[in-house]
Write a structure and sequence with these properties.
The structure holds 2 protein chains of 2 kinds. By secondary structure, chain A is of the alpha/beta class. Helices cover 40% and strands 21% of the residues of chain A. Classes of the chains: A alpha/beta, B alpha/beta.
Chain lengths: 241, 110
């Protein structure tokens, strides 16, 4: 039941609410009383919940990241405010920071009836053209081609270089930095369509993934081995354009 | 001259069902001379646990395979061979990550 924001008091309550109906869209909002931007986001979150009052399939949960540190650790929340959209135990999107528009778009993207074109229910806020309700496979592949060639070396990872959300991603960032390689990155945790689409595009089921000059190179293991065999692996790969 | 029975090193005395399937599939398709598999899932269990993942005990493995099937293939291609064999496990059985060392007998002999 959208409409009210439920402030989580305990982990037990959290587990109960999230397991009650996994098919619901669950919006998690992590905040702390001392972080300035959270004050604004608190009211934004409340207003959004109210705007979805008629939607029985969205649940708004608010979590004090300091008091419920176990839950924040579980979701590896490194900074507040932080939003996570979940459905069927899958994380659809994660947003760090205080941009209400980004969150509104993400909420609308996922709360309209699944995988249908233009929903019958008008969204609460006018969506930006950059957040399409439905992206065709062709459009997705075009976007992936653009992303994989956005920089000579592109790293698709979980989290960001300053805040990696998985050990393998962290290691690959460390290797790139050790070799003083300039690289672009994309946080696949923030965009589920890229996360799933890239698995098909690269024909590779896991992350992190490294691309050089738009060509898929491999994951952590392969890069490690490539460096073992050739210290100048990165320089050579960039030159071989 | 070549051993027809592969040397297989399992993760423990009592490997789980997914590990057994991995061993089974790799042995029949790759006919490796050597296969070692270790289970690292416990190192990642705290991530997956409450995110609703049902499989936290057989989600992350480290494997070493020596097989002539890898000859002439570059690293990504070798890993893809294994990924394709285990597609069902990735998609439906909760297998989440594989660290791999894929070699041919010639490479190991060096």
């Amino acid at each position: 039941m959208g409409g009210t924001v439920i402030e989580i008091e305990s982990e037990t309550q959290f587990s109960e609410l999230t397991n009650l109906d996994p098919s619901k869209l669950i919006a998690l909002y992590f905040h702390t009383p001392w972080a300035g931007p959270c004050k604004t986001m608190n009211s934004v979150f409340k207003t959004l919940a109210e705007s979805k009052a008629s939607d029985p399939n969205v649940l708004f949960l608010s979590i004090n990241a300091d008091e419920l540190s176990e839950i924040s650790e579980l979701f590896e929340v490194s900074a507040v405010p932080y939003f996570i959209l979940i459905r069927n135990s899958t994380i659809l999107k994660e947003l760090s920071g205080a941009d209400p528009k980004e969150f509104i778009n993400a909420l609308n993207q996922f709360s309209s009836p699944q995988t249908q074109a233009a929903p019958a229910v008008a969204p609460a806020a006018a969506p930006e053209p950059s957040a399409p309700e439905e992206e065709s496979e062709e459009a997705l592949n075009q976007r992936l081609t653009k992303l994989t060639t956005a920089a000579p070396i592109m790293l698709f990872m979980k989290g960001s270089p300053s805040s990696p959300q998985c050990g393998f991603s962290r290691q690959l960032v460390a290797i790139l930095r050790e070799h003083q390689v300039r690289f672009g990155f994309f946080d696949i945790l923030k965009d589920d369509s890229v996360r799933q689409g890239l698995k098909k595009f690269s024909d590779w089921p896991t992350f992190p993934q490294l691309y050089i000059n738009g060509e898929f190179q491999g994951g952590l293991d392969i890069i490690k081995e490539s460096i073992e065999e050739d210290e100048s692996f990165f320089e050579n790969a960039i030159k071989a354009a | 001259m070549s051993t027809s029975v592969p040397e297989i090193v399992k993760s423990s005395e009592n490997p789980g069902p997914i590990e057994l399937t991995i061993i089974d599939k790799l042995v029949s398709s790759l006919k490796p001379s050597y296969l070692k598999i270790a289970n690292d899932s416990h190192k990642h269990a705290h991530h997956a646990g409450l995110r609703g993942a049902s499989n936290v005990t057989e989600s992350h493995f480290r494997i070493e395979v020596v097989s002539s099937e890898f000859e002439g293939k570059n690293m990504p291609s070798r890993h893809r061979v294994v990924y394709q064999l285990l597609d069902d496990e990735f998609k439906n059985k909760g297998l989440h990550a594989l660290q791999m060392k894929t070699k041919t007998q010639a490479e190991v002999a060096k």
